[in-house]
Amino acid sequence: MNQSSQRLTDYTVYTLTSRQRLLCMLVSGALFFGVGLLFYHHLLAGAILAAGCIWVPRLWRNVLLERRRMTLSLHFKQALYALSSALAAGKSVENGFKESVEDLRMLNPEADTDLIREFTILRTRMEYGQPIEEALQDFSDRAQIEDITNFADVFITCKRTGGDLVEVVRRTSAVIGEKLDIQQDIMVAVAQKRFESKVMFAAPFIFLLFLNLTASDFMEPLYSGMGYLISTGALAVLVCCYLWIHRIMDIKV
């Protein structure tokens, strides 16, 4: 990767701003502290659990990175449709990429998405005389997304060997579009189950809080002696259940 590409966005990493990191730690720290008080009725236990907030920014960073990469894939699908239409209308490859930027902006005039910026960079590089193959390969190297990589490989090979670019782009956009449609169908199907799992995970905490407020005498043995071990075991089971649910709902296509 050359020096100019190193200054462009790397879509395999996501860096939280100082504000995002601080806000994430404050919110998660307060939540963990509340859980500690709820399960142990002890400030020290709450403080120990609250210390776990130092690992939350890393998890939140991964969530934001996955969202960014998914959004980039969806926008790339739209760009391929626009590019396919431009090539089918008889325009050159270079003009097709240029018009794709305008088509993407027409879909959402106020948006400044990652893909619009990347296609703008592609257009600028071509205006400065850089071959489209090099610019597209650099984008593929930085994105590290399977669909973009496959399209770049096929496009570059076809461009160099003199293949039918219109047909290649049309078929590639159709295949990638079908794959992303399947992903979206799965996400819609799983969305309700995700919500139900969150409700089920929150239910024990709400129930425990309700008992503490309405039947504190009944709950008193839980906060002394063997009660601490029972609380710790219950909390560990809840965490394991959350990780298990998250794992089985992480469906890849």
Automatic annotation (TrEMBL):
<protein>
    <submittedName>
        <fullName>Type II secretion system F family protein</fullName>
    </submittedName>
</protein>
<keyword id="KW-1133">Transmembrane helix</keyword>
<feature type="domain" description="Type II secretion system protein GspF">
    <location>
        <begin position="82"/>
        <end position="211"/>
    </location>
</feature>
<dbReference type="Pfam" id="PF00482">
    <property type="entry name" value="T2SSF"/>
</dbReference>
<feature type="transmembrane region" description="Helical">
    <location>
        <begin position="225"/>
        <end position="245"/>
    </location>
</feature>
<feature type="transmembrane region" description="Helical">
    <location>
        <begin position="199"/>
        <end position="219"/>
    </location>
</feature>
<keyword id="KW-0812">Transmembrane</keyword>
<keyword id="KW-0472">Membrane</keyword>
<feature type="transmembrane region" description="Helical">
    <location>
        <begin position="43"/>
        <end position="60"/>
    </location>
</feature>
<keyword id="KW-1003">Cell membrane</keyword>
<dbReference type="InterPro" id="IPR018076">
    <property type="entry name" value="T2SS_GspF_dom"/>
</dbReference>
<dbReference type="GO" id="GO:0005886">
    <property type="term" value="C:plasma membrane"/>
</dbReference>
<feature type="transmembrane region" description="Helical">
    <location>
        <begin position="21"/>
        <end position="37"/>
    </location>
</feature>
